[in-house]
Design a protein that fits this description.
alpha/beta; Alpha-Beta Plaits; 9-stranded mixed beta sheet; 28% strand; 6-stranded mixed beta sheet; Rossmann fold; single chain; 2 domains
């Protein structure tokens, strides 16, 4: 096959089958349009590009190019479709990007920048190789690229990994792959009126993050001791309160204030455990999160921003000993005065505010 050349691009005539992926920075245009200086915008985008590039590189992948707010990357080692480790690396790369998001968002919060949310799609198939930019940079083309891009924009779930049917079939061909990952059906992409392309949601199987392990053991230990139990479920109740404060005495005080109300109450002294618990909730309807501000790990501001990135409809109540009402109202968009209370709290005002916010 002869090479086809055009200005700035040279098709090599070579093609390979490999694993490719797209990662999209969700709502980046909406987030950056509110930034009042170029330095913040540069910080925002460079953090995204550099962090993803480093992650992909550490899993033997390569970032090819930036397409609007998306990065295209591929994994050359997956050209050997019997190399199970190469395919594990490709999928684990996506999970590591999601895991690192929490540390990155904490850093962004310190610079008053909005948190990152990602859409990640990964697939496998034939791609054409080309050379760009004085023929020194690799680029990829082909239907596999186009299809993975369409999946990313139309079928991906924020902060989860969606894969196409081609790579799903390769992964399922390895008998031991089920020990690492579990797959569930996602939506189908309609290529034509009569042809649909299945996609799948990928989860890690029997692999838990530190916070999930810690959360599981904490709940188990607490449930065996009624005096220290932090979870209080009432039947037929769909109004939930999550309380996060460093002091256990304060958590028990809030529980005592709310014991006569038909709420499900869950409490945490660790803000990371609280965030992980919220992230794994199936829905966020009728959910109120009560936050202290001065906390270890994630402080109240950072936890608030992380929670809102999960679902902006989650209701928040700050309870703090700090006299910073005006400051809070000025730096947190959409926050009202009734969502801030001073410690020590008045029981009547506290229960009335909780009831009003949940209603």
């Amino acid at each position: 096959m002869k090479n086809f050349s055009s200005k700035g691009i040279k098709f090599s005539g070579n093609s390979i089958k490999c694993c490719i992926g797209f990662i999209d920075l969700v709502d980046s245009t909406k987030n950056t349009i509110t930034m009042d200086n170029l330095e913040s915008i540069r910080k925002y985008y460079s953090t995204f590009i550099n962090s993803v590039s480093e992650n992909v590189k550490s899993y033997n992948g390569k970032v090819i190019k930036n397409i609007s707010d998306r990065l295209l990357f591929y994994f050359p080692k997956t050209s050997h479709n019997k190399d199970i480790d190469a395919f594990k690396e490709a999928i684990n790369c996506g999970f590591n990007i999601l895991d690192e998001r929490y540390n990155i968002n904490e850093e962004l919060t310190r610079h008053y920048l909005p948190p990152f949310n990602y859409r990640i799609s990964i697939d496998y198939g034939l791609v054409d190789l080309a050379l760009m930019g004085e023929y020194s940079q690799i680029d990829l083309f082909g239907s596999t690229i186009n299809l993975c891009s369409k999946i990313n924009s139309s079928l991906c779930i924020p902060n989860e990994i969606i894969i196409g049917d081609n790579i799903y079939r390769v992964l399922k061909s390895f008998p031991s792959m089920g020990e690492n990952f579990k797959f569930s059906n996602n939506s189908e992409y309609k290529i034509t009126e009569i042809i649909s392309y299945p996609t799948y949601n990928v989860k890690r199987e029997n692999i838990f993050t530190f916070t999930e392990k810690q959360l599981g053991s904490s709940i188990k230990d607490l449930e065996t001791n009624s005096e220290n139990s932090f979870i209080f479920d009432k039947e037929n109740n769909n109004k939930r309160v999550i309380v996060v404060d460093n002091e256990q005495d304060i958590l028990f005080t809030y529980r005592a204030f709310l014991k006569d109300y038909d709420y499900t109450i869950t409490s945490f002294t660790d803000s990371y455990l609280a965030l992980n618990y919220i992230r794994n909730n199936p829905n966020f309807k009728n959910l109120l999160v009560i936050l202290d501000i001065r906390m270890k790990n994630l402080n109240g501001f950072q936890l608030h921003q992380q929670i809102k990135s999960i679902d902006p409809t989650i209701k928040i109540l700050f309870v703090t000993a700090l006299d910073i009402l005006d400051e809070l109202l000025s730096i947190i968009p959409g926050l009202s005065r009734e969502q801030i209370m001073r410690k020590p709290v008045d029981k009547k005002l506290f229960t009335h505010t909780v009831k009003k916010l949940l209603n």
